[in-house]
Known about the structure:
- By secondary structure, the chain is mainly α.
- The protein has two domains: about 40-275, no CATH class; about 285-460, no CATH class.
- It has helices at about 25-55, 60-95, 100-130, 130-135, 140-155, 160-175, 180-200, 210-230, 250-280, 285-320, 325-355, 355-360, 365-380, 385-400, 405-425, 430-455.
- The longest helix has about 35 residues, at about 60-95.
Amino acid sequence: MSEFLEAVPELQGQAGAEINLPPVEGMRAEVWALAWPVILSFALDSILGLAAMLMVGRLGAEAVGAVGLATQILGAVRAGIAAVGTGTIALVARYIGANDRDNAEEVLKQSVVWGVIVSTAIAIPVIIFAHPLMSLFQVRGPMEAMATRYLQIVMISEPFTGVFLQCASGLRGAGDTRTPLWIGGIVDVIAIILNYVLIFGKFGFPNLGVDGSAIATLIAYVLGGVIFFWALSFDGMVLNFRWTRLWPDLGLGRRILNVGYPAAIEQLVIQFGFVAYVAFIASYGDKEVAAYFIGVRILALSFLPGFGFSNAAATLVGQGLGARDPAYARRAGWVSTGMAVVLMSGMGALIFVFARQIAAVFIDDPEVIKYTIGFMEALGAAQPLMAIDWTFTGGLRGAGDSRFPLFASLAGFYGLRLFLTILVWYYHGPIFWIWWSILADYVVRSTLKTWRFYQGHWTTIEV
């Protein structure tokens, strides 16, 4: 794999610089210090998603399905931005581990530039071809129309989303997970308020329904990008610089993308796989589609430790390798994964036990509740495997080993989940069997990524 990656240039002006890593004895505390702000940040995002889904749910199953379908396409779009973000974390973490702040800040600056370029290049055709994209889900009528408009409105914010996500990635790679937390918290609060006002037409505003939710999301992401852009111009940040000479550096941009492009391909291909997956679900009916997207929103809360510990693993593995201490990097990966398994297993168990009560909060249709419970039980059972998958993926990507997670994820998703879904659909099996194909998917992913991390090839990769 190393032939696809650029070697780190010699550190300029850093000869003999002291390298300081957190003590190995306090590894769990350090992992938790990095993880909890990310967990809380994604928790706020999930609360926003849940709140928006609760409000949209009052408009009916078609509205819920429309927002869910548009969100699937948005996930594919974000895959392109993920290429920049993954490279940013890996490179920033390496430079911080080597005490080279100047180069770390230059990587962050270029990640923002390339994040805007990539997100804009993707957003324009998606806006133009939103209607044909929605037709891939095999839905028609009001649901398709609402989903198309929602997607087109939200996509306008993508350049600002690029700024937001790249700034967050760079700071997290440098070990600053708290700044993205407070900025994200501001954005989420604004988004929830705007959703309420614009969906239901409060305080003199028109009642815009699903369109109101899209406009609220648009405004929130624009504000988030602007706030981040402004905040990083202040002294005292772990990474700060003046926003000057903001033009693309092709050499550094190539290095960032060389590390991150497999992550983007992984997300893109899997998101398009989800299009097929949801299309098979949609063939069962609108209520099954609504149940799927309600379940995803609810279970997003149980995924939060995975996001946090994946980020901690990426940061500490990258910094350990930057400091030329692979033993430290190894321990960081294993400790992060163990902590993620414990927390995600506990949350999965709670959701499994209280699935009916939780589902009933979101919708009052008994059939949708039944389908939602089945989906929640399947994902709840998969939580320990998801913890392993996500955290080792973070560690491998932090080391610059981003191609293997791509192959492992595709093997699990296409080799088992989608394959089993097609079999169930072809033989007219119940929707609940499709839900449980998820477990087989994550057995493959977690097994392959555990083997890869244990093997240790990633310790020799240069980014």
